[in-house]
Amino acid sequence: MMEQNNKRPDIGFVWRITDDVLRDTFKKNEIGEVILPFVVVRRIDCILAPVNVKVRAAYENFKDKVADDKLDPILRKATGGMKFYNTSRHTLLSLTDDAKNIALNFDNYLNGFSPEVKEILRNFQFDKVVARLVRNGLLYQMIQAVAGLDFSPEKYDNHDMGYVFEELIRISNEQSNETAGEHFTPRDVIRLMSAILFTPDREKLNRRGIIRTIFDPTCGTGGMVNLGKQFIREMCDADSQPVIQTFGQELNEQSYAIAKSEALITGEDARNIRLGNSLSNDQFTSNRFHYIMANPPYGVTWKKDQAFVLNESLDPNGRFSAGTPKISDGQLLFLQHMVSKMESDGARIAVVTNGSPLFSGGAGSGESNIRKWLIENDWLEAIVALPKDLFYNTGINTYVWFLTNAKSPERRGKVQLINAVDICHPAKKSLGSKRNDILEDDVKRILDLYLNFEENDNCRLFPNNFFGSYELTVCQPKRDREGKVIEKRGKKEVAKTDTESIAIGSDWKEYFATEVLPHIDPESWVDIAKTRVSYEINFSRYFYKHEQLPASSEVADSIRTREKNIQSLILDLFS
Fold first, then answer.
1. DSSP string covering 457-491, please?
2. According to CATH, where is 3.40.50.150 located in the chain?
3. pLDDT class of 546 with cuts at 50, 70, 90
4. Residue pair 240/317 in contact by the 8 Å Cβ criterion
5. Which residue, among 460, 392, 485, 466, has the nearest Cα to 178 in the 3D structure?
6. How far apart are CA 228 and CA 235, in angstroms?
7. Mind listing the pLDDT tens digit for each residue in 371-398?
8. What CATH number belongs to 178-465?
9. 330 C-beta neighbours (distance < 10 Å), count
10. Contact between 367 and 360 (Cβ < 8 Å)
């Protein structure tokens, strides 16, 4: 199993640069927009340092001899196999030698980057940041401060740089007061998701050269797919490593830029990270994936996507044909989108939600219909209730859903619920709302609950139809003053209606006759045409522990004892 790394990056440079350069010119909520792209540029600058001389020599030798499309592979080759380069004669450090021409030289430096890096900087809107620094006479100071940071691979490996980016985003979000649904996923949560998502497939993955794909439709800065890939690598034998290809789509331009830069820096295909709204602008329409991981925004409206989503929901083969949830929360839309991306010969999904998708919406609602669709297709494998206070920007109840279109034989027709709300440890240091951590022992304990697939205090196993119920519409007849049932055109007129819920698989006629009819008008009936199906997962109810109340005599004795103690106290005060 992947070892937990609790190392936190040193991000004190954020406050030093803020105090020394940016304060009074940029607002608190703008600091991240300035520092993030500079950190990305500095990281790339440090990686390219050993190959700059070769790249520039190749550039000078071939720039006037071959077309641009032929020059690009030559320059990549000069890097020794990297997917980016810089042809400028400058580095961030050398720029500090000429304060007078800093703006002109920095522009030359940025224009020397390969197209992929330029696109990343465009999505950071870096030109606006630089222009503002120039207007305020701060560009030289900013470059001088950043050039003093050592982000070389020897000092910071990809894992460490991932932490740096995450911390920068967390600080930026805190300063911007981002909403609870706009947070990134802590590494301990991703590690738990990875353990349950990938461990069942260890034998399949532990084969040299096989190709497997991981996709995140709300990829943020790319941490989830990158850590998922890392988990697989550490889970598999050194000589049996599969080829793992990562893919992601992200709506936020800044997060997209970081994800793309990480893909570029780590040797991934940066073209697999794409910009756009996954609901209304799917960038992977024809792709299917083996593993899908996501933490979509919760409690966030999908109103701007409403027309597109509703139109696609009318298509029986569309992603949203199972139903649409309330406009105020799009979590179940993302879940349907993920299901549509499952590789037909076997795929697994892990997705974080809050409590709403479990039970929101009554019988016949979009939410209930989506749950019905997931469960009746036997895709829902397990749900894990997570501890509170795991995320940086919210302390609400969260859950991880695991779905697959290739259930193992013993899991077919069943759903496993795991209550892990108490399986955690207090964090050594609180970060935002994150006060708890899932440590390695906690991951193992929760994974064992999943793998053992046995009923106990923390695990429940239910057949699929357990979560479904029929909502019966019970009609009571109108009667005249003499008590006779009033009929119109041979049909009884309705005086009032009520609803009754009955579990799917039960004999509703017997239930109605024995449990309902004896308590209402004996001429009442069930309007079959109005029967609706409801699916909900009332997680807390299944793990509710009844606490025996003390006997009345014990309560009385306790009250008498308390009264005597109070009387004694009063006497002591006045004696």
1. TTEEEEEGGGGEEEEEEEEEE-B-TTSPBPEETTE
2. 178-465
3. low
4. no
5. 392
6. 11
7. 999 999 999 999 999 999 998 777 789 9
8. 3.40.50.150
9. 26
10. yes
